[in-house]
Write a structure and sequence with these properties.
By secondary structure, this protein is of the alpha/beta class. It contains 14 helices and ten strands. The strands form two sheets. The chain has an eight-stranded mixed β-sheet with strand order 1-7-8-6-5-2-3-4, sandwiched between helices. α2 runs antiparallel to α11 and α11 runs antiparallel to α12.
Length: 445
């Protein structure tokens, strides 16, 4: 097992996100008015997550559905929510939640003879009812889906029965703790190894570091079990697979800087992934999700997988999502800057147009510099590795080839790096007729 955490230097860090890889409706839909802040607006932290969800499920379905009966693939959303966020600003309808992203994926992959059967599980009755209305309005008549009321742990057996022998991608994105560890590892990941199964878990790091404050007893839990223990701690014990995390969190926090609860939570997440690997054989790829650049990660979006192609494809999704994330914050910064100027200076419409134009050009320059840096890093990694061996199979050496650019760079940057190395005479030319992830980079003697 190894972890790579990285930043870039030499360019503005303001639009960077970090990634870690480890091997081991609209028409007539009702609006939710509950007090859950998350669904009252699409939080900035959801931009990256939804960018991944728009990209990876279609790839999973396309790849795994090629050998399944009728091209059928199942997508399980264990914490579906109401289907949409509430509208923001002048929006007539709110942004789509994860169920509608799945609906769009199903529509897309139907063109490739794939049948994506969606299973949505939602605990809150009002959310489940709203979701049914949204899906009735916006899902195509030929979409196969089920909305199951209740907790996913109570409906998991039924969901797996619906999935049958089809490939399954399970998305677990709770507000707090997710499916208990034993159920995730034994029932989801415990499906027959011949069945193609992947689990995408959004692990709430903020929850871990906040709950970690209960370990010392200095903070009291308002929820108590009948035996007088902390109900919150017992829930996270069940989620993480035991109370081992308490010592891990405490040791990491005591060995770090003051206020290092966020880093201690990441240490817990790393050990959690190692334990899943040891128990199930599922390796993992994780993408940190932040509220703002330079903030500690609030979540880790973790893909647990078996197939060798999965991390390569997931990295492609994460890279595209990270580009959207950087653009999202660029627009926020520009909006805030313009608002400040309006408060401090007389209105100047022409001046604002000029600022917007300059800012957009700066953003393009920053992106170009980032991408050039990624290409240089990948080329250097390949060169260093081929100094030790004569060839590199890309799928097998994927993590080492990308190195510090994981989650940021993608295939187009690998192609550029390979072409540059070929132009210098260091490696043989790549085969432009074959998928690059299946190729081998060979050093020229």
């Amino acid at each position: 097992m190894f972890d790579t955490t990285f930043t870039q230097s030499g360019v503005s860090d303001h639009y960077h996100s970090l990634s870690t890889l480890s091997y081991q409706g609209e028409k007539g839909a009702t609006l939710v008015t509950a007090n859950d802040v998350f669904f009252q607006r699409k939080q900035a932290a959801a931009v990256l997550k939804h960018g991944v969800l728009m990209r990876y499920p279609p790839v999973f379905a396309t790849m795994t559905g090629s050998t399944s009966d009728g091209g059928r693939v199942v997508y399980l959303d264990g914490y579906a929510g109401p289907g949409r966020y509430e509208p923001e600003g002048d929006e007539a309808v709110g942004a789509p939640g994860s169920p509608l992203l799945a609906v769009r994926s199903a529509t897309t992959i139907a063109k490739w003879s794939r049948d994506l059967h969606c299973i949505f599980v939602e605990r809150k009755p009002q959310y489940a009812e709203n979701l049914r209305q949204v899906l009735a309005d916006e899902a195509g008549a030929d979409l196969n889906y089920d909305v199951l009321d209740g907790d996913v742990q109570d409906r998991l057996d039924e969901a797996l029965e619906i999935a049958g022998q089809s490939p399954l991608l399970a998305f677990l994105d709770p507000f707090g703790t997710a499916l208990p560890y034993e159920m995730m590892t034994r029932q989801l990941m415990g499906r027959d190894s011949a069945l193609k199964t992947e689990v995408l878990l959004n692990l709430n790091l903020e929850m871990v570091w906040r709950i970690g404050g209960l370990i010392t007893g200095q903070e009291k839990d308002s929820e108590q079990t009948t035996s007088g223990n902390s109900a919150t701690l017992e829930r996270i014990d069940a989620f993480l697979g035991g109370d081992w995390w308490r010592d891990t969190f405490t040791a990491a926090r005591e060995s770090g800087e003051p206020g290092s609860a966020a880093r201690a939570a990441q240490t817990v997440a790393t050990e959690f992934r190692r334990r899943v690997l040891a128990a199930t054989g599922f390796k993992s790829f994780s993408v940190p999700i932040r509220r703002r650049p330079h903030h500690p990660p609030l979540f880790l979006l973790i893909l647990f997988f078996r197939h060798q192609a999965a991390p390569y494809q997931f990295n492609e999704a994460a890279s595209g999502a990270n580009a959207e994330w950087r653009e999202h914050f660029r627009k926020i910064d520009l909006s805030e800057d313009l608002a400040r100027r309006r408060r401090e200076e007389p209105p100047d419409l022409f001046g604002e147009d000029l600022i917007i134009s300059i800012t957009e050009q700066e953003a393009r320059d920053i992106e170009a510099e980032l991408e050039n840096g990624w290409v240089t890093t990948i080329a250097s990694n390949i060169r260093n590795m081929l100094d030790q061996t004569s060839s590199l199979r890309i799928e097998e050496s994927f993590a080492d080839i990308y190195g510090a650019t994981l989650g940021l760079a993608r295939e187009k940057h690998l192609r550029r790096a390979w072409d540059q190395l070929h132009d210098t005479g260091f490696v043989h030319r790549r085969d432009t007729t074959q998928k690059i992830r299946r190729q081998t980079i060979r050093r020229r003697d």
